[in-house]
Amino acid sequence: MRFTLFSLGALLFAAVQARSVIYADEWHPTHPKTMARRGAIDHVIVAFAMANNTATFQPKVPITDLRSEFPNAKIMIAVGGWGDTIGFSQAAKSNAGIQKLAADIKTMIDNNKVDGVDIDWEYPGGNGADYKETPNSAKTDEVAAFPKVLAAIRKAIGPEKLLSIAVPGKKVDMIAYTEETGPKIWPSVDYINLMAYDLMNRRDTKTAHHTSVQGAKEVVKNYLAIGAPPSKMNLGFAFYAKYFQVASSGASSSALGVPIVQAEDPITGKDTLTSGAWTFEPAHMNTVSSSQFTFSYDGTCGPSNGTKCSSGCCSNAGYCGVSPEHCGGGCWHAFGTGCTDPDVAGSWQLAAANGVADTVAGGQYYLDRANGLFWTWDTPAFITQKFEQIVRKYKLGGAMAWSLGEDSADWSHIKKISEELNRGPGSGSGSGYDVCDDDYDGEDAGYDDGACGCVDGVSGC
């Protein structure tokens, strides 16, 4: 029996429970009420503290409440998030700024008595929400500064506290993640949270999956290629569907590769409100009739509030008004008058009932030709495939999801992730580590995939 270090690593990993990391954000505050529904969650990341005001951050949900809900979980705080780049960019300009940010993060951790911090800088080096206002050419110094920021944070918080990073899924956004910077980044962090979703976003021009099995696999391989340790990686899952208005669908027999209406202003970079995310919350998943609701007296509306607007539009966020933001971008057609966009809520009911499973790419989609909307999302069945074909295959450390309250209709995605984590490595049809798989580029990842040892319980030999 030939026994290699690679095979030994697979066996050792099989004895370790994989991680289940989930973000808990303030915009979707519903949490599972029972331990059974919380499943295997063992890390909760509170989102978000502002990067330029970190030291004084106090979460809206008290940390003591989260510890009561998740008594066996590590509680962390995320700093940054989409659109919050200025604090990071300013800090990265000088060593003094880096040291202050690190010290402020330590203060935040100490004040809130949490177990660590997640750095969600989207993205060092450019391509963030402000990329039209501040071009990437003005952010080149951030690439070299990013590892220094992480090293300073690690030194400030010490080895006993957790440090994770949320990293981009699209290769074009991996500006600060290269063969040169990777080896300087990985030693500072405990976890690498792979945002293997939003792989189609408003900067794209044609319909595609936003979080398919194939797409997620490419994300993992891109990070393995620059030396990211698999054991530190958590594969990201999205608890929402995405929709895009299509420019025309009548001439196309396929739902994929169809041109979309311009979803981002080419000058300002702002959202044109022709695309969006649709979370798996009760208000989005359950069919409702506005006839059962009364008129609003406080300006709130929609299925979550139980009221409709006497005049004007009911925005996706649940407020009455007449602005473009109220009347577009997922406006609730049944709860007001004047919506200018397609009926997103009604279209989703069609998509959920008639979605098509792409068994090649591994993603769910639907093209609503009547309303001119394309939908793309993940399902429990494809979550299983991601564990079989990615998490177990590449020996990843666990799973990450955005976000907790967005799965509150039935908690089915959390349940499926927990089931897969509890099954462990090497269980189930098609699962396990195929150390001789040609699809696994061991050379890029620093492994010798030609040295295939045969050990009982390890497949592929």
Total helix count? 14
CATH architecture designation of the domain at 5-239 and 379-445: Alpha-Beta Barrel
* Average pLDDT over all residues: 89
CA radius of gyration: 22 Å
Name the structural class: alpha/beta
The share of residues in extended strands comes to: 15-25%
**CATH uppermost class of the domain at 5-239 and 379-445:** Alpha Beta
Query: Could you name the ranges where pLDDT drops below 50 across 5 or more consecutive residues?
Result: 1-15, 426-461
Widest beta sheet: strand line-up: 1-2-3-4-5-6-7-17
Overall shape: it is: globular
GO molecular function, one term: chitin binding
Protein name: chitinase
Signal peptide: 1-18
Catalytic activity: Random endo-hydrolysis of N-acetyl-beta-D-glucosaminide (1->4)-beta-linkages in chitin and chitodextrins
